[in-house]
């Protein structure tokens, strides 16, 4: 495969209609993302046949070229140095999305900023499991307390992280978001879990003869998302009417006062109940008899990923871990990735052209680290059958995971990195369902795919 970054950058520019047709440029771990002024100037045939590019697709208003880790940075820097605009890509792409797509993108942006902390917390849980359950080491009360500080803090005070990220996302002052989040878990409010388990009573607030039961919002997600959005909305509108000389004093004061009253007393308790209902529904679905829930999720989640709608799952999984301590969706998403990896590897084994074989394997490798887009969009989806067989493999693995109630002691990491979330907690079963999903999709893809389709 041609790995000349300058040549690849030049060919990408040609395929999208030149530098002047690019209104925005950015990249993620493996993909170059481009927003065009005129999509009609794109030459799709050229875009899909560039040597050094593992695949091309258009999603969420962005033209995405799969280049692989490391190489994508080189191409991006060349285009950036050539004067291509790199500002406001997300905002420009967002204008081309539907309302539902915008909402899912907003949720994704809010949680992308805090996922690394949650992953780190999960890995710390895994290390404790390795020491205690794997190696049989007894921790002293002091060490146990320190480990609990490391593993429990992020999820207990997750409203603070969410309000900060949401406030930042919607254009408010992030530090105000932090304070709003801290107010949701203020020690003056009865702890949510103490009230749940009957150890204390909720704080009863009487307003116009109506009594409202208030508790802290420990581990709650939706109230924090709302408060971050509402806080940003309130701040921006207050700033429009407050004189500049009083802005420093009045704007933060009124933002905190209005946002907290609305979020804590009126909307927050309602959203906390909605969140509880959603979590229970998801858990009930996953625990359907005969593994049906796992089959449906493991087999169907990649259809959502094609449209970008899989972002709607993120707040649910985070809330599930915060509520239960476990992520029951993690193994189902993992086997779905393993299924696509197996299908892609089957295509690689059947491919006689050495250059194409190398490109396919390069697209499969990121899947073992939880990045499924290269193999799915560049290899499986264009050929249809491998994509469908990958979904079948995910369904089989999902059914087994659901039957045995497999769950991760954390969230965010999948495939090989996700193993740390299962240390001391059914790691062999986690590896087994990955292997089964991979093998099923590999075998089925080889059986039903004809040589002329490769």
> Total number of β-strand segments?
6
Radius of gyration over C-alpha positions, nearest whole angstrom: 24 Å
Outline the biggest β-sheet.
Answer: 4 strands, antiparallel
**Which residues form runs of ≥5 with pLDDT under 50?**
none
Strand and helix order: HEEHEEHHHHHHHHEEHHHHHHHHHH
Helix content: 55-70%
- Distinct helical segment count: 20
Distance between the ends: 18 Å
How much strand content do the residues show? 5-15%
Mean pLDDT value: 85
Structural description of this entry:
- With 454 residues, the chain is an alpha+beta fold.
- It is built from 20 helices and 6 strands.
- Strand 5 and strand 6 (210-214) form a beta hairpin.
- The longest helix has 43 residues, at 244-286.
- The model has no long low-confidence stretch (mean pLDDT 85).
Overview features:
454 residues, alpha+beta, 20 helices, single chain, two-stranded antiparallel sheet
Write the layout of secondary structure elements.
Layout: H1 5-15, E1 22-27, E2 31-36, H2 44-48, E3 55-59, E4 62-66, H3 71-81, H4 89-94, H5 99-112, H6 115-134, H7 141-156, H8 158-169, H9 174-184, H10 192-196, E5 203-207, E6 210-214, H11 222-241, H12 244-286, H13 292-307, H14 313-324, H15 330-350, H16 354-364, H17 373-383, H18 385-403, H19 415-418, H20 427-448
Antiparallel strand pairs: 1-2, 2-4, 3-4, 5-6
Structure in a nutshell:
With 454 residues, this protein is of the alpha+beta class.
